[in-house]
Amino acid sequence: MKNTTTRRGFIKQVAATGVGLTIGGMSFKATSAKSYANIMGSNERVNMAVMGTNGRGAGMARNFQSRKDVEMRYVCDVEEKALAKGVAAVKKVGGNPKIEKDLRKILEDKNIDAILVTAPDHWHAPATIMACQAGKHVYCEKPCSHNPHEGELSLAAARKYNRVVQVGAQRRSWPGLTEGIEALHNGVIGKVHFAKAWYTNNRKSIGFGKEIPAPSTIDFDLWQGPAPRRSYRDNLIHYNWHWFWHWGTGEALNNGTHEIDVVRWGLGLDFPTAVSSEGGRFRYKDDWETPDTQTIDIRFGDDCLVTWEGRSCNSRDTEGGDRGVIFYGEGGALETGHNGYRIFDMKNKLVKELASKDVIDGRDPNSPSANLDMGHIADFIDAIKSNRRPNGDIEELHKSTLLVQLGNIAWRTGHRLMIDPANGHIVNDPEAQRLWSRTYEPGWEPIV
Asked: Domain Gfo/Idh/MocA-like oxidoreductase N-terminal spans what residues (predicted)?
């Protein structure tokens, strides 16, 4: 396969060998060397299942089902209300899905071609790996992993089992933004030495939770899945898990992944040489563990710096936007963050603008509009049928996700990290290297 971001065509990938994998107490057998993608016709229906439908997952399942060549056959969630939301969303556009709370049972269905993973972050990589091994293609919402090691495993699984793995970095499929990135690549503002990205919100306190029995409407053991078991608490589900390191990844990966990916895409960067981070949980004193205010500085060699600013609890716009990216070049600046861009010369004069009518609200978890999601969905389905790598391929998004993961590791250790630019690994820092991976509930360890 070859990545299509530069629009240079496709190269067919060598088929994978059949190898078994055991995860979560169940075994899966890899598909044969003859890839499903190689035999699927352009008009064939792609049969899918969605995992996680309390929030964005329900909307994404609806978007997939709205295509004539997709059938969302299963809705998978561990909570009754979320299951109902997912079923209602799919039925609204003509689907009639089965319900199942355990993804592993769905993966045994040989009629399922692809899995949409929209569960909490600690499930993203394990579900992706399990699905690839079972012969399914994967559309996984960001972040693609809970920690750097999982990102490497997801990439290895995609390549080993010859699966298309698209990460929900939908900006990679926005035509207006793509035009701006191509202009950057063509030198419209000259060499770029600095890029700034940001995200803002006005999140409220999550208070101090109490350990109580999990409601009868949720299978909390299955919700935790790969994560070592912790007691249920009344301020965790459905959204606040984002702010606990055990299950979530903080604002940096919850939202910063999008902008940092645009930066890395625009500058053609791979791995950094150094990463540092400052911030803290400043606004409220509660159970929230990750920073609500954070800056991450990412150094690439001797001539490029990238910075991300996250403000979870102060929604004042930066440069007129609740989120965005600015590239500062030797001949001007390019500003984006939406399906368009603006170019300024060195005298701060606007010299070109591609405006977008698409509404993007960085504070709405269901944003952007379906119109902007559909392009990325179309790219995923076409990648399956054409046996090529998608715009948001796991290799590219692992690299982007790693940058903000390194920022979180730097913040958690309290010191600057030195990085090997050949592979992104932390150098000579045992304390930081311990956060490269995590422990798993026995029997759930992901192995490729």
From this structure: 47-168
| Summary mean pLDDT of the chain | 91
- Taking CA atoms, 113 is separated from 12, 131, 196, 238, 251, in Å, by 19, 10, 39, 28, 32
pTM score, two decimals?
0.90
Do 406 and 256 meet the contact criterion of CB atoms below 8 Å apart?
no
Cα separations (Å) of 123 from 39, 117, 126, 131, 182?
A: 30, 8, 6, 12, 34
Quick check: 391 and 376 in contact, CB under 8 A? Answer: yes
Pull the structure tokens for residue 64: 């997939």
Say if CB 444 and CB 123 are below 8 A apart: no
CA distances (Å), origin 205, targets 235, 243, 313, 366, 394: 10, 11, 9, 21, 34
Residue 310 forms beta bridges with which residues? 199, 294
